Structure to design on (134 residues):
């Protein structure tokens, strides 16, 4: 059995402590240990970004990050976008503008779109939110 490493990670605003195998990927920690299944494993090659989350405000592919590398970091998943019982304006915009596909990569798309190109947090309203294709 592989040795376990203690980590402390803030996920969606909640401090979480765990002991993980050093080789455990962040995506598996989020899905299997924390039950946050909005982050997906899509391609097993790190090309699709279905596993993308925000780590300290920057988009990372959680299938390429070890859980131990997230120690002391802030992680935001799609489950953490909604606050106060309502959807984030970007989530509302995806619904309003039918910006959904099969749902597999939608969490990644909504999670990464909540940041503007300049890196500031999106603060629009659902009425003013725009979802455009690149």
């Amino acid at each position: 059995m592989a040795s376990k490493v203690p980590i402390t990670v803030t996920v969606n605003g909640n401090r979480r402590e765990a002991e993980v195998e050093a080789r455990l990927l962040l995506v598996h920690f989020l899905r299997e240990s924390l039950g946050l299944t909005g982050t997906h494993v899509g391609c097993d090659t790190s090309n699709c970004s279905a596993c993308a989350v925000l780590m300290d405000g920057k988009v990372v592919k959680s299938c390429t990050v070890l859980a131990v590398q997230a120690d002391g970091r802030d992680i935001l998943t799609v489950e953490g976008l909604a606050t106060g019982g309502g959807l984030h304006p970007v989530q509302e915009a995806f619904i309003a503008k039918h910006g959904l596909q099969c749902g597999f990569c939608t969490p990644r798309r909504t999670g990464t779109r909540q940041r503007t190109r300049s890196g500031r947090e999106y603060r629009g309203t659902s009425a003013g939110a725009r979802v455009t294709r690149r």
About this structure: Residues 7 and 71 are 5 Å apart (CA to CA). Residues 26-33 form the longest helix (8 residues). The chain has one domain: 4-113.
